[in-house]
Design brief:
Elements (H helix, E strand, L loop, with lengths): L41 H19 L8 E5 L17 E4 L8 E5 H6 L4 H20 L3 H4 L1 H4 L2
Parallel strand pairs: 1-3
Antiparallel strand pairs: 2-3
Helix pairs in contact: 1-3
Length: 151
């Protein structure tokens, strides 16, 4: 057996010991095979949606968005900036500084709770990204991504 029982005064299980359940019948493989849709978590799917939308917008403005970073966070900070209104933030744009390039932050939980399906979530992500990138470039959001607003 791989795991030694603990005795009083011993430091604990040895490093690298495999953990199994009580009868040695722990999970031995993934419950969902990789080719099924449930294999990826909602967070991984959301990250892919944001990455795809950000890449599509970076292709529209390759020179102006060459150093743009698109980040995903779970929830907005609990202490909003003084210029933020009282509504829940869906995204935030941070202009470039000496230390960091321009950044757009998208908040996953507020976006996912507002959408019923994947198509609606993709549209909302594109709209939030186009609003934030538009604020960085001083362009109207409809001009940044016209397809996100036509639906």
């Amino acid at each position: 057996m791989d795991v030694e029982p603990l005795r009083p005064g011993t430091p604990g299980p040895r490093p690298g010991a495999r953990r199994r359940d009580r009868r040695g019948r722990g999970r031995r493989w993934d419950l969902i095979p990789p080719h099924l849709p449930g294999y990826r978590t909602r967070k991984e799917q959301f990250d892919d949606t944001v990455a795809d939308a950000g890449a599509a917008l970076a292709e529209r403005f390759p020179r102006r968005l060459a150093h743009l970073q698109v980040l995903v966070e779970e929830v907005p900070p609990s202490d909003p900036a003084p210029w933020d209104d009282e509504s829940v933030l869906l995204g935030r744009a941070l202009p470039p500084t000496r230390e960091h390039p321009a950044r757009v932050i998208v908040y996953r939980r507020p976006l996912q709770t507002r959408c019923a399906g994947e198509q609606e979530l993709e549209t909302l992500v594109r709209q939030v990204l186009s609003e934030q990138i538009g604020s960085l470039l001083n362009i109207e959001p409809e001009d940044v991504d016209p397809d996100a607003w036509s639906e």
